[in-house]
Amino acid sequence: MPKFAANLSMMFNEQEFPARFAVAAKAGFDAVEFLFPYDYSPAEVGRWLKENKLKNVLFNLPPGDWAAGERGIAALPGREAEFCAGVDRAIEYALELGTPQLHMMAGLVPAGSDLALHRKIYLENMKYAAGVLAKHNLNLLLEPINTRDMPGYFLNTQAQAHELRIESGQPNVKVQMDFYHAQIMEGDLAETFKKYFKNIGHTQIASVPKRNEPDDGEVNYSYLYRLLDEMGYEGWVGCEYRPKGKTEDGLGWFKALK
Fold it and tell me: Which of 24, 90, 164, 168 sits CB 3.0–4.6 Å from 29 for a disulfide?
């Protein structure tokens, strides 16, 4: 059975962020992921992990002005210096938290933009980040995100992400396969996973179309869990979903797999 990591940005929101670590551990999770740790010091987040015997498997590079609607800056011209500074900041946290890989959010591209320019900037930033992360034995992750939830996002399909990964020439660049996003954009989840398996660094789950607990909707997760086992997937499965109600009340699917 795959290893599951609770996403503390979306789950256990009944508690303030610092308290979610203990609640996740009590619920039976051995690992967590979250969008961003930057509102707290590396030492604080590290202490919460240690106190609750949790691993942190993933978080994102700084995304620009999240509150103003920015969703990453890696593909945005003119933001290169800010991006590079964000890489350094993220590494500081990753080293303190023992996080093995970081996700680089691409950003929103306005309609009518020069896509070739955005692609060039994205690829250059990817190479830079991967090179710096490699010095610390860290992986850089790319994640395609569906255009329904995030209109204008630069990276949308597994094929697009893997093409850029290959072009970067950096062995520590991997791709996240969030089955929720992939189902909305592409479908054919099992065959897509098989095709790119060796270079998928992380997976995530949620029901489709509502992005709730992964025990409802159009995706057969029981089948996908078996596939991950059969393929020998050794990474984590991030539970990046929005609970329908109280998080603990919706964990029947998780407890049934323990």
Answer: 24
